Amino acid sequence: MTEVIEMLMIILIVTLCFLMIPFNTKPSAVIESRRKFDVFVRLYDKPYRGDAREYAYRFQIFRTSLSKIRALNERAREANDTAIYGITQYADLTDREFVARQLADLLPDEPGGGAGGPRAYQKYVIESRSAEMKNDIIFSRARRDALPAVRNLPPRVDWREQGVISTVKNQGGCGACWAISVVDTIAALAAIKRNDRKLIDLCHERVVRCAANGNNGCDGGDTCRLLEWLAEESYRIGAAESCLERNLADQEGGLNCTGESGVRREDGALNATLVKRFSCQGYENEEHLMLRHLATKGPIVAAVNAISWKYYLGGVIQYHCDSDYELLNHAVAIVGYDLNATVPYYIVKNSWGPRFGDHGYVKVAIGRNLCGIANRVSFIELA
């Protein structure tokens, strides 16, 4: 009898446990994170799939990224059309690694010249070694309040719709944003000048390898220095289809940077890519001048602070993007804008491949110098 009573008590206790403590049918946070990480590793074909130690290390970084993404998206609940952040190909990198791989290619600029004395250019204007060229280079320097505001501009401009914007490039492990942004913009401006608006993709690889004036190839460069070099050297950028560097495994051997070797003489892109004059200045409180140039002339080049783009998936960046001049670390092309949107934005062409962001593009809100997008801008005029 005692055994029966004991058995009944056990059954009662177990029953009460099931009634009072329901099953937790949801997987743990770690298991859910591991599932996401496994998909991430396969999707981006990460090289450490067979390395257990590295896999575990990257998984911990990935979990940290998930926490940061949740924090970034908190603002999305409070604002209209704000940016959405999520898992990108960089979610397994520490912030230090991300900066070193993707944002170390825009050489730092010291507006005051630094300890080494005056630089070849300053924050607001290019100072050319040629007095005659200097007058041309500053052709578009802003005159305060000289132009009407945005009410007289087209509400929407997107040069992609005109067929003059080349495909999004992927700089990969080469720190070439400074060259890609400039060369792609020149290609677009050359197409706009042609009667048939034919787009000819240009060989940015050769520019990366050959540009002097303080530029360091895949180790980094500067958009302003590059434009000064292109103008002073009357450098003609060849078409991508005749670009020896693009399909050459060893880019150091067999090629030189004298004259125009590496492109064919009959290359139709040559004469259309000469930089006649350019500007390199700030429009922090005059972004309407950037809009006007985009509407009437074509794409422009800008330096930005892209540290918060690590997890960008789409939408309009309105927060989490510091604008300090000293934080500029990346170069992009701006190919249009939309003033009709709930949050007006720039259409920014990046160089991290078409799988990044909005098919390789980023939307940045207009009017607040977000990401420092108006700190150092270049307008380019071709010969």
TrEMBL record:
Residues 153-381 form the Peptidase C1A papain C-terminal domain. Keywords: Disulfide bond, Hydrolase, Membrane, Protease, Thiol protease, Transmembrane, Transmembrane helix, Zymogen. Residues 37-98 form the Cathepsin propeptide inhibitor domain. The keyword Iron-sulfur does not apply. The chain crosses the membrane at residues 7-25. It holds the Pfam family Peptidase_C1. One of its GO terms (molecular function) is cysteine-type peptidase activity. One of its GO terms (biological process) is proteolysis. SMART domains: Inhibitor_I29, Pept_C1. Belongs to the peptidase C1 family. This is Cathepsin O. It comes from Anopheles quadriannulatus. The lineage of its organism: Eukaryota, Metazoa, Ecdysozoa, Arthropoda, Hexapoda.
